[in-house]
């Protein structure tokens, strides 16, 4: 059959089915039953009895579900291939407890006779049921003796045992069974709702979606015409779009909803801080670390606990709370989550080498600072010494302004420089050291004030004698 003819036949069958769901006949009374009136005391007693029954039944159901949950958890621990809910659903697919019954000769003979009669039917003909052939089967069964019955049913009994073993022990596709159950149940619900709409004129919308990604059923939408028009005209959306959004919410949960930039940044900062502290505790164990230090990391963390930080992905080493870029926070979170950025505890030999290198670097820094201070102080005192020599040598020789301008100006003060290779305990992805923020020193009280040459005691010059 061509595809377009097949589709047309499906549509025609659906239209025929929907026509059967409606009628123009009015409902009439077809039951006549005398109502037995009860007193107020009887009604109150019956109400108490019903309430007690509901409570006891609900408690029994909860206890039964707990037992099944325990068995599902036991299966999960024993086999461990699926989740607890998977095993729970597989157990609950059996509608009732079934007892094991022995395969009898009579059952095997009935099965063989029914199959024999059905095999003689032409293709497409309605097949016989066992109840329809029961008089003939019973008459033939009575005409046979015990040896004939054994010979007739021996092979059938063995095949029935194999069939039972297959049904009991073969692997079941739980999700396929759940899909079939969902489709059949929704089909019945659709039929009932359609008949309700025809009887009472009730308008309704039915949305059915899966709750997790393990199930296979697609979003199901069933509605009346006026309900669909309401969504299209008033809410400016279709029921199909609403069903897909509803499925996304049920599968992803609240975490899948759109968040503002600020909420996402704050959540990333919080998760990063907790993750970094947790990883620091693990790396420093058995020593206990109270908090994570980003300022003076080498002094507060590496020197105390022998832990270094490797593969820091950002150019600046700082607390996640000081980072406001969402992209940088995501990069940092992914690096910590994948263990690309990690804490590593130094061995005793490595820690000894680190302390020695750190001590040598500190001594080199102190030596360079001392040399800079001495050279600066020597050059700064030269102008004062020259002026004092002039005063002592010849008190009447006063230098002119021209001679003072010939002298070179004093050199500018030199600042201390931090050594290039500083051991901070934090390393980038390339293996180079990352600059760690140091705690600022206390500022001088005369910072920003203009400072001139020191004021010395001026030497008094004798007055020149005048001839009388």
TrEMBL record:
Bias type Basic and acidic residues, positions: 435-446
Biased composition (Basic residues): 447-457
Start and end residues of each stretch annotated as Disordered: 399-468
Protein name as catalogued: Uncharacterized protein
UniProt source species: Suillus plorans
Classification lineage: Eukaryota, Fungi, Dikarya, Basidiomycota, Agaricomycotina
